[in-house]
Structure formats: C-alpha cells, structure tokens
Give the backbone structure.
Amino acid sequence: PGRAGPRLSPVGAFDAREVAAHLSALRCEQLHRALRQLVQRLMQHPLNQNWFNEPVDPVRLNLPDYFAIVREPMDLGTVKSRLAAFAYSDVPALAADVRRVFDNAQRYNPPRNAVHRAAAELARDFDADLERALERCARASQAAHEHACGLCRGRRCALCGDKCITLEAPALICSGPCQQRVRRDQQYHATRDGSRLWCHKCYLGLKAVIPPPADAHARPRAQDAAHAQATGLWYKRDLIKRRFDCDVHEPWVQCDCCLRWAHQACALFNAKAERDARGAAGAFVCPLCELQHAHLPPRGKRRRGDGAEAAAPLRLRALTKTRLALEDDDDAASDDDGGGGG
C-alpha cells in the first residue's frame, strides 16, 4: 500500500504471495532447521556412497527398465532443495519424500544388493532420527513458552511465534601473541577505549608499559584523541578486567497499525530508516497488516492494546541494537556413481 513517509520495511513493496511466503518461512524456520540437519546427516552417512543424493540417470547407469519399476523418483538432493525453499508445509510431506528415496532403492535393487541393504539401514536411521528431532523441537517449544524476561516481557513475536532470540555474541580477538578468540565466560583485560584487549594468559606476560600495535606506523595520523590514544602507549595497571558473558538478543519493534510486537529481523525492519525518520510521518506496518491490507487509523484515534503492549508507546522503537546472525548450510560432499536413490 502506498503511504507517505520513509519506508521502514521492504515488506511494503511485497505482493500478497511474497508476504505469505515470508510468514510461512518464519513460522517453519525452527522445525526446518532441525530437518535440514537430519537430511544433511543422511547425505553424508558412511553407508550413502552418493547413491541417494542425486537423481538416478538410467542412461549413464545402463538401467533401461528403471522408470518402469520406479514410478515416483526421488533423491535426497531434491529433498534438501525443497526444504531450503520451504516447499514442505508439514513434516509428514518431507518424511514421505525421504522414505520414497529408500523405498525406490529397495524396490529396484534385489535384497542382497549393497544399495538395497544401505537403503534399508538408512530408512531405519531416518525414522529414529526424525522421532528424536521432533522431541527436541517439542522441548524447545515448551522452554520458549515458559520463558519471560525484561526484554520480551513474556510476549511472543507476532510473526515467528518465538520470544527472545539469542544471537551470536561479537568476536573478541586477543591482541597478544596468541591472537585467539576470547571464549565465553573467560576473563580478559581491555584498554579503556576498548580498542585493544588481551586474554588472561597473554595479560600475565605483558610488561608494565604496553607498546603500540605493530602496525601503528602504517596507520594514518590520528585526528582525534581516541585514535591517538589507541596507537600510543598504555600502562598495564590501567587495563580494565572484564568477563565475556554478554548475551545478544534480537531487538523488537511494534507495529503502528495492530500494536503487536515482532522481532526486527522477522519484520525486515529498517532501524536506520527509523532513526532518520524521527519526527517525520513514517509509520511501520508489520507483514500481517500488509497481508490484510490494513490501513492506519487517524493518529488521534488509535487504540492501545491490552496488557504489556498497552504500556508501550505507539511510536515504534528498538529495544536494543544488535547485528543479525546468519546461518549457513553445509553443502553435501563427494560425487560417486550409484544406482540407488531417486
């Protein structure tokens, strides 16, 4: 919908199909993450010599009767691609495709064939792993249901259904000889401006006067006092002792239309545009309201929500500032010949 003011989320430019796909992906993400790991393990299983990871090529493998016997070909690579595209609306649909991979292999290959035996073993492993994955998801959902803190106030994201989302903490790299990452709950010592830090082991080896970093001569001449101090001398006694125990959570934002709260990442909220638009006529509309083609009522006639949401201001606000942690999937390994899968 066209609205005056800066755009605070790209969702406003989505069509209904794209908004619905975004919401569906958010609500399936937790379960799909567990299922992606399960499929990845099957693809990398020692018994799977790349027999089940790609579609069967009857011409290359000289299997002229393959499609006469196997009516519905399927392979784990196709399952992984469909899962990444959120093509499965529920777990039974995914489980049916995975089982079809192994059923096809057992149907085409005789019982004493290595592919047949591997398919039967992987099918049993899949059923057991799937049951455990669903149990873990149920426990995680129960724990999330019971969670409440000062950040989320016990409320759930209107888009993904989760409460607090913990992100990966920033990396702290020791400036000492080890050059290692400071581990969680480990003590370290930092300069007052935070420009340099040392793990406890390297701190013990520091001299009373700490020289500037080795690359200080290559840096441009500092124009501000902070940079000049960072490239100058430090005294060991001035270092501040700290413990790396910070928790980083995804910030929240409130919809100006329905007054519901959502994670900024889920809403694709543009925090910079919000800061630049303070005092302007910009308003944030969540994907749910965009999907329903909701329109903002006159500013003076807006109604507050109930409970904790009613206590929050109508203007959108970020509860904390943080970076988004992204998750990458591992690709399947090795390419071998075989006539087992799809």
In short: The two ends are 45 Å apart (CA to CA). The chain is about 35% helix and 5% strand. Confidence is low (pLDDT under 50) at residues 1-5, 217-228, 294-338.
